[in-house]
Design brief:
The chain is mainly alpha-helical and 213 residues long. It contains 9 helices and no strands. The protein has one domain (2-209). Helices cover 71% and strands 0% of the residues. α1 (2-34) runs antiparallel to α4 (90-120), α1 runs parallel beside α5 (127-147) and α4 (90-120) crosses α6. The longest helix has 33 residues, at 2-34.
């Protein structure tokens, strides 16, 4: 029973991690739908049912590995398919669609920041509740920050692409086909820099919202 009680907060956090990455993908699909592309809707991806979005490696295995190595669930859901040729204004709408995912994670982080700030300043607040709210906030800030790294196929590259001249856009489009490889390069080769970026963003955010905690 004690082991279950110790595991319960982590189970709750993992469940919220799953819902956070699902919300990220649904946001991509919803904005694409609003801009003229019904692909995600037709494939049943505009749903918060996690089964529709689970990728065995990114959604289950990778988060469990990162939890036991760096203490945070980190990964992603199966990307929502988007047909850029069905969008009203292809380049602009692809940028807006990409931006929707990280912005959703930022909004989730802000949503959980409010009760976190309240609990942190209540002397009798449950440490378990504070732990859960902090982890959910950190996870969503990490998801937003990592996805805004401007390297294909991450969302940041699609935002940056909108502001690039046609020749550079073409090169970035070619790099998209090496998506998994590019992500692995970022994690393995630039791991220290990525870790420093995440610590900078998350650390300063928590210092700002919890200055006296």
């Amino acid at each position: 029973m004690e082991n279950l009680q110790e595991l319960l907060p982590n189970i709750v956090v993992f469940g919220m991690f799953i819902m956070s990455i699902v919300a990220h993908e649904v946001a991509h699909g919803w904005i694409a739908f609003r801009r003229g592309d019904p692909t995600a809707m037709m494939l049943g991806r505009l749903t918060f049912n996690p089964i529709k979005h689970i990728d065995p490696w990114y959604t289950i295995i990778m988060p469990l590995i990162t939890w036991y190595t760096i203490g945070i669930f980190f990964g992603g859901a199966k990307p929502v398919p988007i047909n850029p040729y069905k969008l009203g204004h292809m380049d602009r709408d692809m940028m807006l669609t990409a931006l929707a995912g990280p912005l959703t994670n930022i909004m989730i982080a802000l949503f959980f920041t409010v009760p976190l700030m309240i609990l942190a300043h209540v002397g009798t607040a449950s440490p378990v509740a504070i732990f859960i709210f902090i982890k959910i906030t950190i996870i969503n800030l990490a998801l937003a920050t990592f996805n805004m790294v401007p390297i294909p196929p991450l969302d940041g590259s699609r935002v940056l692409r909108y502001f690039m001249p046609p020749a550079i856009r073409s090169g970035m489009d070619q790099m998209e086909r090496y998506g998994l490889f590019m992500v692995l390069i970022v994690i393995v080769v630039f791991g220290d820099q990525l870790n420093a970026l995440l610590k900078f963003v998350i650390g300063n955010y928590l210092k700002f919202v919890l200055p006296h905690a």
